[in-house]
Recover the amino acids of this structure.
């Protein structure tokens, strides 16, 4: 039903999970089911209408449960689950272990290109006084460079933007180009000061593992969704 990242983030005040294809998180009943399973407060569950942008919403006591157009969400309030929907895009959890702040972002290629993770980290620093040395990140399953075929134009778009990266942001097989969203997002995190050892990425491809994950590409633009869900306990 879900993958537990507790062994990765080593955080005792918050919990981070990623659902599997046993659930369709676009459905009310399945959202309620996972919250019950995790002992999360379903009445306070808060998520966005995702628009492939880089806006990050701060959840405080006045807007719990509100749905806004954004692709990132952050809070320091206990008992308020926050959630990001995905079906191939990258999800990233952010945990400030010192100030007890959590956030998560939805980063498809557009959100990645717009550096939504940079926006999230800046919000944590300016609003919650987070120190990047205290932020741990968990990258959820997403379509990997093994499967994410894109156009040469899109590859060049990323090359031009991330000229300082020493990593190869894509691979070429034959005459086809495959973008590495995992590697690009890791680069963005480290560019913002997140330590390499504080980035936990199981490198799980949603397209490859059809027994575990929904995939927008593999399942012909399916409306079914998985989710990264986290809560301060």
């Amino acid at each position: 039903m879900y993958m537990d990242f507790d062994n990765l983030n080593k955080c005792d005040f918050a919990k981070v999970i990623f659902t599997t294809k046993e659930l369709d998180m676009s459905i009310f009943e399945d959202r309620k089911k996972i919250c019950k399973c995790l002992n999360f407060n379903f009445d306070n569950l808060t998520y966005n209408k995702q628009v492939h942008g880089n806006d990050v919403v701060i959840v405080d006591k006045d807007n719990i449960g509100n749905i806004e157009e954004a692709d990132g969400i952050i809070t320091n309030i206990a008992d308020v689950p926050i959630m990001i929907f995905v079906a191939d895009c990258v999800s990233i959890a952010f945990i400030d272990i010192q100030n007890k702040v959590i956030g998560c972002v939805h980063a498809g290629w557009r959100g990645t290109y717009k550096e939504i993770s940079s926006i999230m980290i800046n919000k944590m620093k300016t609003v919650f006084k987070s120190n990047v040395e205290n932020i741990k990140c968990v990258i959820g399953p997403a379509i990997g460079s093994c499967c994410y075929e894109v156009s040469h134009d899109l590859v060049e778009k990323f090359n031009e933007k991330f000229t300082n990266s020493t990593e190869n942001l894509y691979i070429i097989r034959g005459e086809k180009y495959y973008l590495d969203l995992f590697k690009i997002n890791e680069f963005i995190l480290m560019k913002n000061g997140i330590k390499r050892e504080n980035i936990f990425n199981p490198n799980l491809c949603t397209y490859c593992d059809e027994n575990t994950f929904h995939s927008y590409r593999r399942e012909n633009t399916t409306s079914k969704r998985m989710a990264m869900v986290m809560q301060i306990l």
Notes: The mean pLDDT is 96. DSSP finds six helices and 14 strands in the chain.
